[in-house]
Write a structure and sequence with these properties.
- About 70% of the residues lie in helices and about 0% in strands.
- It is an all-alpha fold.
- The protein has three domains: about 1-110, Serine Threonine Protein Phosphatase 5, Tetratricopeptide repeat (Alpha Horseshoe); about 115-185; about 190-275.
Length: about 290
């Protein structure tokens, strides 16, 4: 489960006139939930709904039941309950937080495009400032994981630092500052690496920083070229054709490897930055 789920664990209690007459069963369920005994809490919420089907706390209980599944990593059950929450409780203010949890579920599953869409809709429908600012934060992380640094900075800059109940606004600004300072990342062009090794075998590897691989590629291709030329000079055309077939594999492999090394270099730098940002975020989580 993503550590970012800590950011959307917005505590929910009964409000209004019902606060003075909260059912003891509900308070017991909340106590179990806060203690981390999610299975027992779920049973307590369900017991509340069974004995008091008309309770004004029904939407809160349903929302908390879905969260117990989430925190027990029973994603299918959690997603189903969060998805149907708006239909069951169309007037509940928790419907926006339920949608926020759906965005979190998509994020945890690595479905960043779907998570962004879900959170974008939420930003334009919810009037809850904590929900909206958390949606911006999660969308920022979606863009971070897809290495769209500029959009990530834009989303993190829109986090309302005053909404401390939803997330750490100051942390969001620090993440945006880090992205602004570290990007664009130094990179190597796979196309250039490939063409360099096409012209001079091994030079593409040297361009990427793979010295040993570059020297090996140059040596193997050099030997092949020498043997082919020697066979042609001695009029051993069959041998030269065979050597050409073998040498072509080394030559083309040298070009392909140069491109792969460049792509791996870029991916490595991206992973390093993402890990830095994750460490920065986790260091201030409660």
């Amino acid at each position: 489960m993503s550590t970012l789920c800590l950011l959307i664990s917005i505590t929910t209690f009964a409000t209004g006139s019902t606060t003075e007459m909260v059912d003891p069963q509900y308070l017991y369920a909340e106590q179990l939930f806060e203690s981390g005994d999610y299975q027992a809490a779920r049973l307590a919420y369900k017991r509340l709904l069974f004995y008091h089907p008309d309770t004004e706390l029904r939407d809160i209980a349903d929302y908390q039941i879905a969260r117990t599944y989430y925190y027990q990593n029973q994603i299918v059950h959690a997603a189903a309950l969060f998805r149907e929450f708006s239909a069951v409780h169309p007037n509940s203010p928790l419907r926006f937080r339920s949608q926020l949890m759906l965005g979190q579920l998509h994020f945890d599953a690595g479905k960043y495009s779907l998570a962004r869409t879900t959170l974008f809709e939420l930003q334009h429908t919810s009037q809850d400032p904590e929900v909206v600012t958390t949606a911006h934060y999660l969308r920022g992380w979606c863009y971070i994981y897809t290495t769209d640094w500029n959009k990530a900075i834009s989303e993190l800059r829109q986090v309302d630092a005053s909404q401390t109940g939803a997330l750490h606004g100051e942390n969001a600004y620090k993440l945006a500052d880090t992205l602004l300072a570290e990007t664009p990342l130094p990179s190597k062009s796979p196309q250039l690496a490939g063409w360099l090794s096409t012209v001079v075998p091994g030079s593409g590897q040297l361009y990427v920083g793979k010295v040993k691989e570059g020297i090996l590629a140059a040596a193997l291709n050099g030997v092949c070229i020498y043997l082919i030329a020697d066979a042609i000079r001695d009029r051993r055309y069959v041998d030269s054709a065979g050597l050409f077939c073998v040498g072509w594999q080394f030559y083309w492999g040298n070009r392909t490897n140069a491109r792969q090394f460049a792509a791996e270099y870029n991916k490595h730098r991206e992973r390093e930055l993402i890990e830095m940002l994750k460490h920065q975020a986790n260091s201030v989580l409660p």
